[in-house]
Amino acid sequence: MDAFYASVEQRDNSQYRGKPLVVGGSPNQRGVVAAASYEARKFGIHSAMPSVVAAAKCPELIFVPPRFDVYREVSAQIHDIFKRYTDVVEGVALDEAYLDVTENKQNIAYASTIARLIKAAILEETLLTATAGVSINKFLAKMASGQNKPNGLTVILPQSAEAFVEGLAIEKFHGIGEVTAAKMHSLGIHTGADLKARSLAELTQHFGKVGHHYYKIARAEDDRIVEPNRVRKSIGAETSFAVNLSSRTQMLHELEQIALSCQQRLEQNSTRGRTLTLKIKFSDYQQITRSKTMPDYTRSLDIIITTATALFESIELEHRSIRLLGIALSNLENAKQTQVIQLPLFEYVVNEL
Prior knowledge:
There is one protein chain. This protein has four domains: 4-64, MutS, DNA mismatch repair protein, domain I (3-Layer(aba) Sandwich); 69-156, Alpha-Beta Plaits; 160-217, 5' to 3' exonuclease, C-terminal subdomain (DNA polymerase, domain 1, Orthogonal Bundle), CATH 1.10.150.20; 234-337, Dna Ligase, domain 1, CATH 3.30.1490.100. By secondary structure, it is an alpha+beta fold. It has a four-stranded antiparallel beta sheet, covered by helices on one side. The protein has a three-stranded mixed beta sheet with strand order 2-1-3. Helices cover 37% and strands 19% of the residues. The chain has 13 helices and eleven strands. The protein has helices at residues 4-12, 38-41, 51-57, 68-82, 111-126, 138-145, 161-166, 178-186, 192-196, 200-207, 210-217, 248-268, 301-313, and strands at 21-23, 35-36, 62-64, 89-93, 96-99, 132-134, 153-155, 234-245, 273-282, 287-298, 322-332. The termini are close together. The record marks 5 as: Substrate discrimination. It is found in: Cytoplasm.
């Protein structure tokens, strides 16, 4: 979906339409942007940005509290539309899903036709726009969905797949964040063609197990299937920092922001967790985790911050700087009955068909 939370708010409140708006946060308090309208994005505002920074970029910015119950209802409407065409639907977030329409209920020959019909139905029934990416596997569909937003439709045909990937800037690859992109640049890898030129041995040497994934996607290969009704294992958030954190005050501040994002995601999905895991990656790429199982299920922001801070304080930093912090809640309430939703880590808000 296109700027989903913000678009719902603009749909339901005429005074917000055409104006820069963000969902979440507050201009006078700590907090982060959960979603930004396209009008706000023109000012350089994006999800996960601290509210005070967003307010400074656009003094006329409207802050709206999230209404997750409404977003869940609209998401359910959209999934009902999906089910008219296929039951093989994998929800990624409230505003994103993969669909396998190889075999579909209406025996439509082309996936692009189904995508157009779904987009039209979403617009008619919810008054919201969606962007679709169509291709032969998950990775390519994901990349296609980011090419023509908002309200777009991009198809990557099998015969065009390798050329598309080869011409793509490495930082545009789904799953390659700022830190990994910078490392690839240092190795002389700037495009998909550069990545494709590297051997499997070289990629695994520099990137470990994920090097095998990079080797495959550089060749437009992705054998992951669309998995409906998977069991959710955890919900969390993490941030890689463009500049390593060296101040303890900075670290604790960022930890609070990540805790807030984690709490919001638990709220979005109406679940709570018992086991909290803190993840830290140092500037030398050493990574450690610390976990604590709590007496009861929770999604309380105070408990998440207190528990994460206690785990953080138990670690001897020895003047080391930090490049990544993350918090995840696992051992989720009613996990066996709940469809998995692996939420994006401030990377994207798109819809894939």
